[in-house]
Amino acid sequence: MKISSKEVLSISPIVPVIALDDIEDALPLAIALQNGGINIMEITLRTSTGLKAIELISKEMPSMNVGAGTVCNKKDLEDSISHGAAFVFSPGISEELIQSAKENDIALIPGVSNASEVMLAQNNGLFACKLFPAVQVGGVSILKAFSGPFSKMSFCPTGGVSLNNMNDFLDLNNVLCVGGSWLVPKKLLQEKNFEEITRIAKSSLDQINKKA
């Protein structure tokens, strides 16, 4: 494995979750985020452009850590790898995904929403998970509850996370980063306003509470 799941979650305190419709936006967006201080992209497979964008960025911008999101099964995972993804995020967890990630030697950050799913991850050697949908399943409260029985686990809360509440999550010891779509508003992509995306990235990083 080139990069571990915990290393993925340690690249940046904010992981932009991106749905791309136009392949021409891929490289300018990657440059804009990097200029704003963010060196990781989770490009979801929700659009037909997702895999092509991952492939393009991984080839043309090796300095950007690019992975796939919305990976739901073995085919999604293998397609992501063949298009250059360095890691994969899933909204959920399954034996199929766990086994496929092991077979293909790629960092999998599975989505969990309850104690049983955290146990499934931990018992399979996965100690970095996405809490999804974070706010809807209990947010900060559930992560505090997880910290006792699952002290080795680290999380990336995604789903309902915004500039307004990100520090509530990032202040927790078991949270390495948060995932969010606010960094790349669809309207700005449509307008090709990449300078504003850079500004949002810089501003978001500046507003993070610095841990002592």
Short description:
The longest helix has 13 residues, at 194-206.
Overview of this structure, please?
The protein has 212 residues and is an alpha/beta fold. The protein has a single domain, classed as Aldolase class I (TIM Barrel, Alpha-Beta Barrel), CATH 3.20.20.70. The chain is built from 10 helices and 9 strands. Strands 3-2-1-9 form a 4-stranded parallel β-sheet. A 3-stranded parallel β-sheet has the order 6-7-8. A two-stranded parallel sheet has the order 4-5. β2, α3 and β3 form a beta-alpha-beta unit. The chain starts with a helix and ends in a 6-residue tail after the last helix. The mean pLDDT is 97.
List keywords for this structure.
alpha/beta; four-stranded parallel sheet; globular; 10 helices; 212 residues; TIM Barrel; three-stranded parallel sheet; single chain
Number of helices: 10
Q: What's the mean pLDDT score?
A: 97
What general outline do the C-alpha atoms trace? globular
Helix-and-strand structural type: alpha/beta
How many structural units, i.e. domains? 1
Rounded Rg = 16 Å
- CATH topology (level 3) name: TIM Barrel
Task: Tell how many strands the DSSP assignment holds.
Answer: 9
Please give the alpha-carbon distance between the first and last residues.
Answer: 32 Å
The CATH architecture designation is: Alpha-Beta Barrel
Helix content: 40-55%
The protein's oligomeric status is: single chain
The H/E string reads: HEHEHEHEHEEHEHEHEHH
Share of residues in strands: 15-25%
CATH class: Alpha Beta
